[in-house]
Amino acid sequence: MKIINTCDKIKSVFADGFTIDLWRKYAEEISKELPSKCENDAKNYDFNRDVLPVLENALNNEKIDYVSKNFQSVIDILNDNLSKLFDKEPDINIVLYLGLCNGAGWATTLDGKNTVLLGIEKIIELNWGDETNMRALIFHEIGHLWHKLNGNLHIPEYTKRRKGIAQLYCEGVAMVCEHILCGDNDFYHQDKDGWLGWCYKNENQIKREYLRRLDNKESVQDFFGDWCSYNGYSDVGYFLGCRFVRYIMKSYSLKEIANMRYGRLNKEYKKFAEKDEIIIIEPLSPEDYHKCSNIWDMSGQPDSYKWLEEIKNGNRHVYIYKINGEFIGEGALVLSTIDPDYTIPGKRVYVSRMIVKKEYRNRGIGSEILEFLIRKAESMGFSEMTIGVDKNNLNALHLYKKYGFTEVLFNGADENGEYLKLMKRI
User: Fold this and answer.
1) For the segment 87-117, what is each residue's pLDDT rounded down to a tens digit?
2) Considering only CA atoms, which of 256, 267, 249 is closest in space to residue 152?
3) In whole angstroms, what is the distance from residue 350 CA to residue 335 CA?
4) CA-CA distance, 143 to 3, in Å (whole number)?
5) Own/partner long-range contacts of 255-258 (Cβ < 8 Å, ≥24 apart)
6) Which of 29-38, 76-85, 219-228, 333-342 has the lowest mean pLDDT?
7) 155 is a domain residue
8) 305: Cβ–Cβ under 8 A, 6 or more apart, which residues?
9) N or C: at which end does the chain have fewer Cβ atoms within 10 angstroms?
10) Which residues does 152 contact at the CB level (< 8 Å), separation at least 6?
């Protein structure tokens, strides 16, 4: 992998301002193909109105140095994590350059080599120069190149439906690759002002509206691009694409998905869109927990006061699960001292409750809840997770062992039978 950072060159070449002739000479030094590639891509722009002001804004040494510094930090992180995605170091170029508003990120080919072009003028215009946004941008474009190297990145888009499926699929694969590289399945640089929470809570509505538009040959542009929005939220298609690909990953490997053709993807999206996803209500406040504490018709609730105190002090995180507005399950994570046999503060987390209503069992919901709890624990920095289970509950034992839990301790017995303690490395 070759890294080309032209920031110092940008500052020296354009010290007295931008001209197109200077830019062409600068671009040719990167690649003989680059000037024509960028100019052909930008030919439909009004240069003086749409491009020149963005370039002039970007030619500021402080802004350029800020982007350059964070670019190098992200490249260091990428080098440390490449093996999570690639079997061997990929033969690609990553170029930080001054373009003609061709995009903040562009996965393409240059001189016959797979290349990620990072347009500093667009990065500055979009305020994506901080490390978080740079990481998202670079890792996402690397995800597109992984898809190209391992499968079927380009699907012919000669109908609106094919274009809608192709865009969702390609961005979804890139998002999953991005998550693998950064080690966080809930990382979206768009997650500001409750964006991700809104997406999760409205997932069923989002995916069905996308399907409705496909069925009716309508545009899905509202779901993609920071200049567009669906119900007031931009880039919802990146969330939806990622959720779609993760849904298919329950049956196929990521490499198998990377090679899927349109017909299979179209069928899989219809199945995905028509399936009721669990809506997860983020950690409940004590007030919300008190309102929900009787939904299981449990008698007595002997630990209710203790739970409320632990929720208040942040030691217990309780999640409620809903389908179509109905409460169907509950899960709880205890972050430290409640598990005396197996507790290392900051390292081990305990699943203290995982319940699915009887009428919703044997539908794969328990698996989805457990996946969510594992993902949450991982995102909070824990390296081990423990869970207690009745040794006679064979279905639960099978589920936990399927997700990598192993028996570590016999926990004794109570009126409900003998219990086991199981542990998983996260």
Assistant:
1) 998 999 999 999 999 999 999 999 999 999 9
2) 256
3) 7
4) 17
5) 255/150, 255/151, 257/151, 257/173, 258/146, 258/147, 258/150, 258/151, 258/152, 258/153, 258/173
6) 333-342
7) no
8) none
9) N
10) 258, 259, 260, 261
Domain carrying residue 235: 160-274
* Domain C-terminal end among 221, 249, 274: 274
Provide mean pLDDT across the span 287-299: 49
Instruction: Flag whether pLDDT at 283 surpasses 90.
Output: no
Residue 342 lies in a domain: yes
Task: Return the minimum-mean-pLDDT range out of 44-48, 100-104, 193-197, 265-269.
Answer: 193-197
What is the token pair recorded at 142? 């690397």
Residue 253: DSSP 8-state: -
Phi and psi at residue 138, in whole multiples of 5°? -70, -45
Distance of CA 142 to the CA centre of its chain: 14
Q: DSSP 3-state assignment of 418?
A: strand
- Position 337 scores a pLDDT of 46
Tokens of 168: 């969702």
Q: Are residues 26 and 9 in the same domain?
A: yes
Tokens read off for 89: 């170091």
Element (H, E) at 319: strand 316-323
d(C-alpha 301, C-alpha 295), whole Å: 12
- Stated as kind and residue range, the H or E segment containing 164 is helix 160-182
Phi and psi at residue 147, to the nearest 5° = -60, -45
Residue type, 31: S
Helices 160-182 & 131-150 angle (0-180, nearest 10): 120
Q: What is the pLDDT of residues 12-36, one digit of tens each?
A: 999 999 999 999 999 999 999 999 9
Hey, what are 312's tokens?
A: 């208040």
Place of tokens 């209503």: 357
* Pairwise CA distance, residues 75 & 96, whole Å: 11
Q: What CA dihedral angle connects 363, 366, 372 and 374, to 10 degrees? A: -140
What is the total count of domains within the chain?
A: 3
Checking DSSP bridges between strand 384-390 and strand 348-356, what pairing results, if any? parallel
